[in-house]
């Protein structure tokens, strides 16, 4: 396939490309990074054809460089995503996500009595407890209760 056929969304000069996002996780990542209210130029491709998966989402943020710690926040939504650093049109770093140790502002605490639920300005904060079968449990930093990640609702 020629380069021009392959490049499905315009190349960027400098910034971050989050690639291989499972289709429909793109919106969650936009929200997580508050990219719906940023001044930076963001290009989004949704449901693009992909060889590795059937379809994928892609997000390109110009002139923004995310840290590995920030990138890892999206590992629960998009474990196969890669975060590419682009400098002067070249990919200078390709980072495969790791499960983060902590998660901020992504999920609501499932304990209705938790302070984060009656003081909604508090950013939720969970410790990630990986378990053997690849399942993840989250421990609330505030109320210290532990929940299976699968039952957690998004903020
Ligand atoms: N990209 C971009 N602007 C550039 C260079 C690359 O938007 N100046 C994008 C590409 O379109 C691709 C991602 O950054 O979505 C990674 O680029 P590259 O490593 O060249 O692509 P692949 O080899 O297809 O990556 P992978 O092996 O991760 O699939
Ligand atoms: Zn809690």
How would you characterize this protein structure?
With 155 residues, the protein is mainly β. It folds into two domains: 15-95, 2-Layer Sandwich (Alpha-Beta Plaits), CATH 3.30.70; 102-154, SH3 type barrels (Roll). It has helices at residues 3-6, 26-32, 68-72, 115-118, and strands spanning 15-22, 42-49, 55-62, 82-87, 90-96, 102-104, 125-130, 136-140, 146-148. The chain has a five-stranded antiparallel sheet with strand order 2-3-1-4-5, with no helix packed on it. The chain has a four-stranded antiparallel sheet with strand order 6-7-8-9, with no helix packed on it. β8 (136-140) and β9 (146-148) form a beta hairpin. The site of cytidine-5'-triphosphate has 13 residues, from β1, β3, β4 and β5.
Any chance you could write out the topology, listing elements then pairs?
Layout: H1 3-6, E1 15-22, H2 26-32, E2 42-49, E3 55-62, H3 68-72, E4 82-87, E5 90-96, E6 102-104, H4 115-118, E7 125-130, E8 136-140, E9 146-148
Antiparallel strand pairs: 1-3, 1-4, 2-3, 4-5, 6-7, 7-8, 8-9
Query: Regions with pLDDT < 50 over 5+ consecutive residues?
Result: none
CATH topology of the largest domain: Alpha-Beta Plaits
- The DSSP helix count reads 4
Biggest sheet layout: 5 strands, antiparallel
Strand order of the largest sheet: 2-3-1-4-5
Q: Indicate the radius of gyration in whole angstroms.
A: 17 Å
How would you summarize this macromolecular structure in one to three sentences?
The chain is mostly beta strands. The chain is 13% helix and 35% strand.
What are the main properties of this structure?
155 residues; mainly beta; Alpha-Beta Plaits; SH3 type barrels; 2 domains; five-stranded antiparallel β-sheet; 4 helices; globular; binds cytidine-5'-triphosphate; binds zinc ion
């Amino acid at each position: 396939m020629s380069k021009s056929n392959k490049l499905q969304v315009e190349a960027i000069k400098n910034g971050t490309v989050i690639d291989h996002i499972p289709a429909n996780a793109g919106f969650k990542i936009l929200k997580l990074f508050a990219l719906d209210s940023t001044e930076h130029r963001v290009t989004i491709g949704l449901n693009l054809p992909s060889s590795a998966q059937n379809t994928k989402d892609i997000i390109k943020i110009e002139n923004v460089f995310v840290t590995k710690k920030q990138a890892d926040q999206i590992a629960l939504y998009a474990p196969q995503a890669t975060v590419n650093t682009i400098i002067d049109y070249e990919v200078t770093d390709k980072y495969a996500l790791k499960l983060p140790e902590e998660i901020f502002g992504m999920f609501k605490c499932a304990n209705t009595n938790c302070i984060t639920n009656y003081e909604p300005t508090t950013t939720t904060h969970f410790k990630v407890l990986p378990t053997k079968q690849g399942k993840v449990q989250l421990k609330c930093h505030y109320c210290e209760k532990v929940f299976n990640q699968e039952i957690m609702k998004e903020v």
